[in-house]
Amino acid sequence: MTTLFVATTGGHLAQLDRLAQRVPPAGTALWVTPDSTQGRSLLTHRDAEFTHVVPGRSVAGVLRCLPIAHRIWRDREVTRAISTGSGIALGFLPYLAARGVECHYVESAARVTGPSLTGRLMRWVPGVRCYTQYPGWASRHWHYGGSQFDCYAPVPAHRDRRGPIRVLVTVGTSAFPFRRMLAQLVQLLAPQGALSTTTGRTVEVLWQTGSTPVDGLPIDGVQYLSGPDLDHALSVSDIVISHAGTGSAMAAFEAGLKPALVSRLHEYGEASDDHQDQLAEELLRRGLASYRRDGPVDVAELIASMSWSVRRVDEPSPFSLLPRHERSGRR
Asked: One MF term from GO for this chain (predicted)?
């Protein structure tokens, strides 16, 4: 028996990693994800297969997954498959469900008010059980199994107020550029910027720029950080300013940090929709992040974030998968 865990990179893979720790084991585990620095770092000591990227809304990318799904089903005796999306899930779960495999699709925690396009399609696939991480939109079609964010709680922190303030700025691994976020932070984090002059401390910034072009900006950054490099950067940071992506937010939580979030917006070509705004509002409500929908990052909120930490809940509740004989409602 083999449980197949399949997800695209970024927040989807980070969520699946945490989810796998909250579901009962069933045989051996095999991971499938597009080849990336994040995936190879996270899955170094696990049985994993790295495959192609499935671009958003790419039928061809989904179809390229089918022979891989067939081979893995045939060779590894897959009996259960779990995915947190996105498009790669469509290349695996429908085929495996048709082969009698127990299939579970968990919508991303980024989808606060309703499912993604992948989720809307998956909900009609016979044999695939669908889950939301928010009870507010659970229904006979969408079972509420729990939330990724139930694993975290905000707590007061007492950090050293001497020496330089170390800031990590990250736009994550999204294929969409996010120059607006970087540009608005340049002056705030400059050597004589608002953060430095307000606190009387020097500011050291690590810029993780992803696919964002930074020509013309006074930024000496790195495109992508490996998993170990990101962990180290977080471990020495006093402040994290991040796009409102689940993977980046959860990485900050794991390091005990309360991030300041900036949401990507569709109107500026920064995302395919405005789900990051919804996620940021949810994390603000839980006290796990700071967020200002109507304006740029504020120096006061950065200073305040250093007075808070985020801790892992000792024993988070298991993620509730529907039994094999039970399924979400259809049509």
From this structure: hexosyltransferase activity
